[in-house]
Amino acid sequence: MKRFTTVLSVLSGLFLLYIGLLFLLDPQGSAAGFGLPSWPEHEAAGFLTVKGGRDVAICLGVFALLLTGRRKALGLVLLGLTFAPVTDMLTVLGNHGSTGIAFGVHGLAAAVVALNAFLLLRERPTPAAA
């Protein structure tokens, strides 16, 4: 199970890095996949870059905890970070956006992050070699 949660954590981090970089490098071009019916214009378009920065920052935090072996801390952080895709899903639904993207992208992301958090928090420490 430890290998599974490690792979899931790495894939989650890489996915966040990919999405974050898309929003940082091409905010308008990547915005359609978010699920909202309309996008901010002019100065308000900067919020798309904020989303990209948030995703890259989360990715870096996930990798820092994973690389330092802080698996219980990673589980707690991921549990808290479940709030981000849930908020994204509710934002899309509350603004008459795509129901499919709301549940299929943001809802699924929340479920995967919550599952990974739960599995990490259930892990038992590996006994030290004698």
What does this 3D model show about the protein?
With 130 residues, the chain is mainly alpha-helical. 75% of the residues lie in helices and 0% in strands. The protein is built from six helices and no strands. Helix 1 packs antiparallel against helix 3 (46-67), helix 1 (2-25) packs antiparallel against helix 6 (99-122) and helix 5 (83-94) packs antiparallel against helix 6. It is elongated and about 55 Å long.
In short:
Helix content is 75%, strand content 0%.
Question: What is the strand and helix layout of this fold?
Answer:
Elements: H1 2-25, H2 27-31, H3 46-67, H4 71-81, H5 83-94, H6 99-122
Helix pairs in contact: 1-3, 1-6, 3-4, 4-6, 5-6
Structural descriptors:
6 helices, 130 residues, mainly alpha, 0% strand, elongated, 75% helix
**Biggest sheet layout:** none
Low-confidence stretches: none
Report Rg: 16 Å
Number of domains: 1
The best one-word shape is elongated
Helix segment count?
Answer: 6
- Rounded mean pLDDT is 88
Helix percent reads over 70%
The count of strands amounts to 0
- Note the beta-strand portion: under 5%
Helix-strand sequence: HHHHHH
